[in-house]
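Appendix B. Raw example, untouched.
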Amino acid sequence: MNISPKVQKIIDWRESFSILPDDYFFEIVRMYLGEVKTPYNKQKLIEELGAFIRKDENRRNIIALLDSSDIKLLSAVWLLPSCDEKKLESFLEPQFSLAEVYERVANLSERLVLYRAADKKSGKVQIKINPLLEDELSSMLGMNALVSSSENFTPSELESVSFSLSNEFFAVLVSYLVTNKKLCRADGALKKHSAEELKNIFGSDRTAVIETLVRSMTNLSLLADSDSGLEIKWNVLSQFAGLSFQNRIAYLCAAVTRFSRRTLIMYAQLLTDALYSVQKKYVTRADLKKIIFVLKEKTGGHELFGAGRVSELLRRAQSLQDDTSLSDSGISDLVIDNAVKFGVLEVAGKNEQGEDLFKVSEQFINPQQSEGESVQPLSVDAAFSVSVMPGASLTQLLELVKFADAVQFDTVSAFTVSRSSVMHGFGLGMNAEKIISVLQKMSPYPVPQNLCVSVEEWYSSFNSAGLYKGYILRIPPESEKAVLKNPNFAPFVRETIAPGIILLDFDCDETACRIIQKAGLDFVSGIKSEPQKQDPAGFSEIYCGGSYTDIFSAQKASQTSSANSAALVIEQLKEVLSSMKMSAEQKECLLERIERRVIVNPVQLRAESVRFEVLEAGGMDYTGKIHVIESAVQGGSLLEIELEDSPVPLIGRPVHLNKISGGAELYLATTASDEPLVISVSAAVRVKKIRGSAFIAKECGRS
């Protein structure tokens, strides 16, 4: 029999109640249904709880009593797969501490909004939203409830035009790298003379951008460290240039360290999706980190990044080559930093809290850079000066910088062609015909004749002597004539260096072996060479447009309206309570329940449902602290312990209270330690029992 997902959720919710410890189960039942009469049937009581929630008035009041902090936490539960307290803390910090997360989850569980259930496959206990309230809550929950409101924000006037990493900027830097390989110190900072030269070329101090860009290019294997400095990997750079402008920017932003290929792709895609999801919003850094966190969790179990949660993917990827010193939060910060430096994110102003508000640059969402080869933005004068206007593709520009030196970056960038620059181009495999062809294709006007003549003369000089790099075939001299006349082989012969020594022009080992086999040269046994380092695989496409932008699909509920509704419900309940005849202690307990928003209907105001319990003790109240601890030990509840020398309270399950001469020691099991912590009760500034935590205490360790 097939069961619908919604029905299955309701079954899971009922089961979660059936396995609660009896003390906590009956406490909940008494709060909502009144005193339990014997004999009783647990399943019948659970059905009655469900009926209580289904009543329109009760459901309406439960929703009305949710405040903005409740909505934030519930939105996190709604968005995050396999949600638990630790994940909530990571996601919601610094707004919520771990103690606050535990306490609020326990409170929302008391209010029947949340429940906990073990995953059928993993067995891990997860926090879930009550399926009986999902329909009402679904329109209130989502990313809109978690990010800063920016609807009424007016961008400030920027003092200067924001920087944007363009094809021209990138190409000018590559041009400088061709002849200045040792521009950086060992720590990645620009050397003083390089910084000054680049400042002159770019017309302003772009040190921070250039250092970051060089670091990203190195992490992407576009550059490689060598004894002579940074070597340009032209084959990898060519693949990179073939990507779209957005893809290139995404990869450069994501390359904050030496990631494995899979992890690099993941962060590039996460950033792209995040940027598209906020393209019409003003967001803080914290907002962006939350969005990346959610997207990462949502995609962690999808085919895009392989099986398992993203954290598991990261661990697998890190075992290959990732920098494991960086946390997920740290990586997100660095990726955002890169996005700001490269002009993908622009500072639009500050919010009321003084935090920077960012907007996504229009250049990223709607790039104006041409990626075709039809644009002719170049002009060449008789003095061998080359002017490049915006619009060229990066592929075009990279061909240019192989033989032209950058002089000035500007709206119209300036290059110069010289004997030395052209010699560099020849060394990279270009010839006179190729250089002239590149210039002609990029210019709407004929290339000056004197430049063509000079390039050809320089090429003749280059060929008069040379240091060759390529494939050398050594054969018996008597076989040379037959080999050279072989029609399959002859097109690849570059030069006969000496009798029986032939220089060949193959692009790779695979081509060489294939042609030799095709030519029938069976006496050539294979390529004899030192093992070569393989270049990384090509760059995968990053999808632009936002694959997971539906995290913003829900509309934010009106918090003003919600607050007014909550105040009205609470006031009505207090009025009913004040008119009832019962002891002051009973009224005080019920009033505390109203303040905790556990009571949603006057029928819950029953004197017989009150059970007096001390939940907190501190200071000099040593006996009170002992009482709270003993109660927690007996009921298996969580404790929050505040110590003098600790800025953050400890959360854990009390395993044992050891009374010794002169005091008492508490053994506290926490998620942070395999062994229980031993705490002197007298050293505890405050001891607080987290209400309703009996059924979640096992998550904080076992004795």
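End of appendix B.
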